Amino acid sequence: MNMQVVYDVLGENAWSYIAGTFVVLWTIVWLYRDGLEIEGIADKYVFVTGCDSGFGNLLCKNLDRRGFHVLAGCLTEKGADDLKRVTGPYLKTVLLDVSNQDSIQKAMEWTTKEVGDAGLWGVVNNAGRSLPMGPSEWMKVEDFHSTLDVNMNGVIGVTMTFLPLVKKARGRIVNVASVLGRVAANGGGYCISKFAVEAFSDCLRRDINYFGINVCIIEPGFFKTAVTSLEPLEKELQRLWNQLSPEVQASYGDKYLDKYIKVQRLIMNAICDTDISKVTGCMEHALTAAHPRARYSPGWDAKLLWIPLSYMPSCVVDIGLKLVLPRPSKSV
To answer: Mind telling me which residue stretches traverse the membrane in this protein (predicted)?
Structure first.
């Protein structure tokens, strides 16, 4: 064998060995660093929005068990009472409507008295709504606003109002977006609002990282919660259909609504995960890790479908969604 060939083979093997060793060492260091946790949990306060049910409700219970002082923002008295009955004395509730700035301000003033000089270690912007959701042409302007007021303006309002308390504790802001903040698959305000949460969180993280504040984004896939419940979704689709003019209904065809509902049922039943602890586990990591991640994408569909799809060319995404969604009977 030619000596030059031997040297070339040995050189390639050496570089492969070096690259492999680097990957293994980097993985070990990342896992070790990712597993480091903060100290003094018992002295830290965390404010969570949208705690009546779903992710927020379970997160409050888990944080309470871990020893945090949990301040839970609930939309209803019943939600607050139900949560207090199953948690310890260090969890307190306050009524909060994130779409109302006066309500946010009152919650902040109450929180300031609760935390005192300690400041606020974490704010988790979990409150959200999914409806109205459907074909964009079926929406009125107020349908968009009703979702944006909660999912976008609510996140911004709570974050900016509570920011001085978080800054005082050099804490964390955890914003719940969605995989539909990476791939716009539905009409209405939901995808728009979640894209906005992504952008707001990225801008905020870069603007305030000098103060030792971490901003984390949670991008859940599809999970079985009130947000993905089929009954209200189908009722809302029927309402949107009924408000259309006869001309617009005719352009879609009288069978379109039934086909659309069947597709929604198929998607929800096929990919919705029942284990919502996968989401709350990411929220907990964002609050307790010494080095939290900028993004978390809980759910198998998030990792294997939506996130990879978000990097595809638009034409690929368009074709994929066309294959899933029903077609109108004719175009105008």
So the answer is: 14-32
Instruction: Assess contact for 169 and 71: CB atoms under 8 A.
Output: no
* CATH match for 40-224+274-319 among 3.30.9.10, 3.80.10.10, 3.40.50.720, 3.60.20.10: 3.40.50.720
CA atoms within 13 Å, Cβ hemisphere of 307? 16
- Per-residue pLDDT tens digits for 28-57: 987 888 888 899 999 999 999 999 999 999
pTM of the predicted model, to two decimals?
0.89
CB 288 within 8 A of CB 66: yes
Compute the radius of gyration of the chain from its Cα atoms.
23
Q: Are 192 and 180 in contact (CB under 8 A)?
A: no
Helix (H) or strand (E) holding 172: strand 172-176
What's the pLDDT tens digit per position in 69-103? 999 999 999 999 999 999 989 999 999 999 999 99
Q: Which residues contact 159 (CB under 8 A, 6 or more apart)?
A: 123, 125, 173, 175, 200, 204
Q: Where are the domains of the chain?
A: 40-224+274-319
Compute φ and ψ for 93, nearest 5 degrees.
-120, 155
The predicted pLDDT at position 3 comes to 58
**Considering only CA atoms, which of 37, 121, 27, 62 is closest in space to residue 279?**
62
DSSP conformation letters of 188-216? BHHHHHHHHHHHHHHHHHHHHGGGT-EEE
Spot the catalytic one: 7, 17, 32, 190.
190
Concerning whether 260 is annotated as a catalytic residue, the answer is: no
